[in-house]
User: Fold this.
Amino acid sequence: MVVVMAADATDEDADNVAGLVRAAGGEAFVSRGVSRTIIGLSGDIDHFATLNLPAQPGVCDVVRISVPYKLVSREHHRERSVIRVAGVPIGPDTLTVIAGPCAVETPEQTLRSALMAKAAGASLLRGGAYKPRSSPYAFQGLGEKGLRILADVRDETGLPIVTEVVDPADVDLVAAYADMLQVGTRNMQNFPLLQAVGGAGKPVMLKRGMSATVEEWLMAAEYIAQRGNLDIVLCERGIRTFEKATRNTLDISAVPVAQRLSHLPVIVDPSHSGGRRDLVLPLSRAAIAVGADGIIVDVHPHPETALCDGPQALIESDLRELASVALHLSPLVGRTLTPAPAPVPSMSPALA
Amino acid sequence: MVVVMAADATDEDADNVAGLVRAAGGEAFVSRGVSRTIIGLSGDIDHFATLNLPAQPGVCDVVRISVPYKLVSREHHRERSVIRVAGVPIGPDTLTVIAGPCAVETPEQTLRSALMAKAAGASLLRGGAYKPRSSPYAFQGLGEKGLRILADVRDETGLPIVTEVVDPADVDLVAAYADMLQVGTRNMQNFPLLQAVGGAGKPVMLKRGMSATVEEWLMAAEYIAQRGNLDIVLCERGIRTFEKATRNTLDISAVPVAQRLSHLPVIVDPSHSGGRRDLVLPLSRAAIAVGADGIIVDVHPHPETALCDGPQALIESDLRELASVALHLSPLVGRTLTPAPAPVPSMSPALA
Amino acid sequence: MVVVMAADATDEDADNVAGLVRAAGGEAFVSRGVSRTIIGLSGDIDHFATLNLPAQPGVCDVVRISVPYKLVSREHHRERSVIRVAGVPIGPDTLTVIAGPCAVETPEQTLRSALMAKAAGASLLRGGAYKPRSSPYAFQGLGEKGLRILADVRDETGLPIVTEVVDPADVDLVAAYADMLQVGTRNMQNFPLLQAVGGAGKPVMLKRGMSATVEEWLMAAEYIAQRGNLDIVLCERGIRTFEKATRNTLDISAVPVAQRLSHLPVIVDPSHSGGRRDLVLPLSRAAIAVGADGIIVDVHPHPETALCDGPQALIESDLRELASVALHLSPLVGRTLTPAPAPVPSMSPALA
Amino acid sequence: MVVVMAADATDEDADNVAGLVRAAGGEAFVSRGVSRTIIGLSGDIDHFATLNLPAQPGVCDVVRISVPYKLVSREHHRERSVIRVAGVPIGPDTLTVIAGPCAVETPEQTLRSALMAKAAGASLLRGGAYKPRSSPYAFQGLGEKGLRILADVRDETGLPIVTEVVDPADVDLVAAYADMLQVGTRNMQNFPLLQAVGGAGKPVMLKRGMSATVEEWLMAAEYIAQRGNLDIVLCERGIRTFEKATRNTLDISAVPVAQRLSHLPVIVDPSHSGGRRDLVLPLSRAAIAVGADGIIVDVHPHPETALCDGPQALIESDLRELASVALHLSPLVGRTLTPAPAPVPSMSPALA
Assistant:
């Protein structure tokens, strides 16, 4: 942390700052230049925040020079992490495809979507039982009934399931069914929810807030980690900008940026970022090529009747191409496509 | 709703769209132009959404031409609403000042802040007992202890209290103490929370999400209204843009825009939008002049030791000027400054 | 300037940086902390830029701590400047209204617009003869013929004229007619144009680029100033954000921010920022109340047939209200409304 | 174009609009719905703009349903174009790498950069002789001397040259040396410059404005095309957003979006978008994978002493990897890497 004094600050002003920091147990190095004095601080940065240095006399600016997150930072954990979702790895050596319907609607639609996901190269099934919707008049999801459908389809197909949770009060229920909990873009700074999933004992996929900086995203991950859960996968899904040709602007650079700052895996959602089916394949290729640890895509057997986000769902004819892209691009970035786990026969009753 | 057909769409494509709409109980008017065909729809727009028209063959675009909110819309409720918070009005004929500390820290700090608020012309006291913070290592608020302090200070000063709630599970507890519930910017699309405050029986102040459009803000209000609570005050607090000279960019135009679209009162937070003490007075003047129904400002007796947002809090010497601004600008926009209610003597024990 | 060394930088790395700076004639103060070393620099900052310090081994970050503009900075010119346009002042003690049609179309339309401008309290006439338009198929302005119309109307009404120039090659021609040259938002970083108007001997109104930071805006002013022309008025006209309810987002905070950083006057364009007639009056009130040194508004006798920006032009019935706002709000911010100069009789031939 | 009437518009209002359109030679189709009337227009859309329909009584909104550009649109030119720069193709079947120093500094630095460019797989050399810089105190380029250096290096290496022009008055001079003219991001809406390069008889690379929508970008290309020059290559170079971890936010989706709307080639600048050397390779891979027709990258033999943008320039050790990426990724997207042309021996005197 560096304190920059104003051009007209006095020596007493600088001594005052140094004194406050030292009284708080830190070190302060005062450099008096021709036009300005600067003071370098070291010690317990978080504690310095309570000194309210920007409000001290003669202080012009306070510049933080270390990152405000610790557990998810790569600084003290050089090796990139591998997160396992019911055995399926997400990490630096693999490319993991997650696919499924935006919303669980019926057992048949979910099963067919899961089979489509497999055909597209997926090893994890996503599907929403609780849907955060901008309008109170839109379909809000099937709730626990949807979770049961997902569990049945997991038994049938072997694909572990990833599903969203939107209320801290629902975390235990959702965690009882899901293999991975998803925190959506609108909840990235829903701190009670972050704390709840931090204690749920299941891996978490944390979507980036649509107007969150990479630093805020990592701070949100830190909330989860601080509760003892470091099984976190970051998901870039597009940010809000002035451009309206796409639903959001996929921040493809955020993938290598976040991977450099954090040891956590980073995946990309090309469906929600573009919001258009014709962009899903190009953006999937870009995501794999940039070095993402995985992608998550919407598929739907009948997108024209989907209750949610139909226009961006892949259809049958796209699947083979996605699988081919995932298979052939992965080796060029030093990865292998994660295979789908086999269903466990005894666990798999006939699907109702 | 208008469906725009692609340049190469066939007559069958247009007939298909019209047929789907009519089968769903709506009306469809097909206009065949030289270069394109367009189809005007009327009926139950929300139901049409399930037809997934953008995915139909030959459809180029679907343009919504009516707003997606109803209860908070001004279209069927021309007169602007007055919301009363424990008797204190917020509405088109008044200017209501809400002031207080960002966070409740101690009884003394809260009482002194309340007296500062009164000196600044405030008729409502704000103060946070539950603080949503970007870092898990930052001060998170005193919780229920903070609520009790607020209640004591209300007894002492007569100022009704406005305080934030961040978890649906806390809504009943907070509502037991507060006169108005605040939903913060990070929770504007926390739908379980919106639904919970919609059923809490207390007025709600809904801050605009930092990257929410005015339409999304009104949709969030609709969530609250749909649960039977129309006592909602909208609060503009700055949006996220590329400009970093201020913490957020105050969208001053959003005040008249939202007032034209909705009958709900709209107030402005000049403290959080600018993030700098020296901007609070100019932005307060701008907010009053543009026609806001109120302002909400941070005050703190010792901003240099504040546990939260000290750099933006007004101090003693600013208060008289704020009170003067509120008093003298109001009549120029056809309003009167809302007076502070008197304390009720019997309710006011000695403050510990 | 502060150089922050990486956590794993060596002493040699720090010595290398210090050596480079000293060899370049600067001073370097090395502070070795527990976790990091920082180096404070003083001397010729611009020269240090050629050392490419961010690329030196062990360097983590280079933080600039002084502003990159000098001539327009308030640091060495505490008193705010008054710019005079053919005698009409724009500065800290006055409120100057500039009004007129977006584009000059005919002598009659321009004269009627000028009379409307006067009725609205204006002391300067704006009008475009050269129009930068997004589409090559849109009306591009009358060119020199438009300048002659403006000059005739100036003779008739006494109002000095403000008009835009878009090509460095046109600067001399436009300066021969105009009392003040306008550089538009799309040209804020057209450096040859800035240099040309810097040498034209006429005051310049510099509109903020629609995606320019306040710092970039002041750097653009520095380009003009560096050519010897310090008669510059800054004009905030809205920035580009995600919000689409208004054409641009008026950054009202930029007014006090720029006034604090620079001694130049700052005015506001409420017409182009909102893009809607119904917002011009509220935003004008906000601009005056926030402390702007003036406003510039579109007026048009027949906005429904205007060749440019008709939907945002004020009409007859709005003028009295604008004049009243300008007159009554000014004293509350310590200003007086600048009166319109009288026409000089001998210069005023019959208008063709 | 669709005119949406207000809910309370009368039949006369709708008839008035229809009448205006028909009087202007267009067709108007009135659809009266239960809650609203809409009017579909066809004919000369540009002419309708002069009718100022949004200002007519009872009009709520006017929605454009066709694109405002023609010559660069893909609607009437389905096949994607191939642009040839001194024989080097940029188009749908190839991947063309353009590389070189941000600024031309010396003959040696430029020649060495050109050899680096070749090693990186480039077939075109970029280098700036005229540099638009935010600060008037920064290096502004060598001007014509820089152009002569570029021409010498072209003779030596065989690489055609791409260089920026910033002033309409310089276009003829620059075109006399360059094989392709570059219009930079700050000049994307410098209309006199666009018109000048439109008449210069050389291919043009048009960088996207940092806050321009894809539609505005295509409108800027239309300006060039309208002057008879359709040899235009679009270059995505990052847009301005709230995220500060990268210099700009590379809008990778803009590549397929622009390719769908326009027949012109689209390339990507991974150096300026990220602003960091460590991002150039990942973003280059992403650009190729998404389907860009080429990339343009900064290289510099001594980035630590570069006069411009050193921190983002590739160095020797990166080149082989870039060449390998370009070679091996291209076939996966159905392209071949464009080979560098051989130098023409007789034209190649010893470099001074």
